[in-house]
């Protein structure tokens, strides 16, 4: 049977575009911004700490950040309770 694996996106800021080939060995390269010099890379959730350290040691990599998207609440209930967001009639 097909089994889903938990994945997470890493945002890798790079100095040059030549390192993109090397990043393909670590995970799935989803997007490359050649002008703004970053790469969106999907890796397995259980290997994030190991791969983040290895990727950060590459010569042309400036920094590596994890995506916060899986941690966010999509229903905005936290924002309503804090008062940062209020529901309007158009939101219904």
Descriptive account of the structure:
The chain is an alpha+beta fold. The chain has three helices and four strands. A four-stranded antiparallel sheet has the order 2-3-1-4, with helices on one face. The mean pLDDT is 87.
Percentage of residues in DSSP E strands: 25-35%
**Which structural class fits the helix and strand makeup?**
alpha+beta
Number of strands: 4
SSE ordering: EHEEHEH
Kindly provide the radius of gyration, computed on alpha-carbon positions and rounded to a whole number of angstroms.
17 Å
The end-to-end span amounts to 40 Å
Mean pLDDT: 87
Helix content: 10-25%
Order of the strands making up the biggest sheet: 2-3-1-4
Give the uncertain stretches in residue-range form: none
Largest sheet data: 4 strands, antiparallel
The geometry reads as: extended
Number of helices: 3
What is shown here, in short?
It contains three helices and four strands; from the N terminus they run E-H-E-E-H-E-H.
How would you summarize the topology of this molecule?
Layout: E1 7-14, H1 20-23, E2 28-33, E3 38-44, H2 48-56, E4 61-66, H3 77-82
Antiparallel strand pairs: 1-3, 1-4, 2-3
Q: What are the main properties of this structure?
A:
single chain; 21% helix; alpha+beta; 29% strand; 92 residues; extended; four-stranded antiparallel beta sheet
């Amino acid at each position: 049977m097909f089994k889903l694996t938990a994945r997470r996106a890493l945002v890798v800021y790079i100095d040059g575009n030549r390192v993109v080939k090397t990043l393909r060995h670590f995970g799935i390269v989803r997007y490359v911004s050649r002008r703004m010099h970053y790469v969106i890379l999907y890796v397995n959730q259980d290997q994030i700490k190991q791969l983040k350290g290895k990727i950060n040691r590459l010569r042309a990599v400036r920094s590596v950040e994890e995506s916060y998207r899986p941690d966010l609440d999509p229903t905005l209930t936290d924002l309503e309770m804090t008062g940062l967001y209020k529901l309007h009639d158009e939101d219904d």
